[in-house]
Amino acid sequence: MRLGKFYSFGTRIWRVGFILLVLILAGCKEFPEANQSPPYEPPQYVVLASWYGVNP
After folding, report:
1. Which own/partner contact pairs does 45-51 have at CB distance under 8 Å and 24+ positions apart?
2. Residue 21 and residue 10: Cα distance in Å, rounded?
């Protein structure tokens, strides 16, 4: 049994996996960011003109 051949195969698998991971992560920045949330609108409250609030 040749350990050198087995070791090089395992090393080759790790290298290919690492290269694929780098390519996948590098490709993530190519797509524009998609903002799915609606634009923020502050709440609008209806308050009577005679209302002055409550004192502490």
Report:
1. none
2. 17
Q: Which two tokens stand for residue 33?
A: 């960011």
* Residue tagged 């087995």 (tokens): 6
In a domain, 8, yes or no: yes
Angstrom distance (rounded) from CA 51 to CA 56: 15
pTM above 0.85, yes or no: no
Tell me how many domains the chain contains: 1
User: Which structure tokens are listed for 26?
Assistant: 């590098």
Domain assignment of residue 48, yes or no? no
pLDDT in tens, 1-56: 555 555 576 778 888 899 998 888 877 766 666 777 888 999 988 888 887 777 66
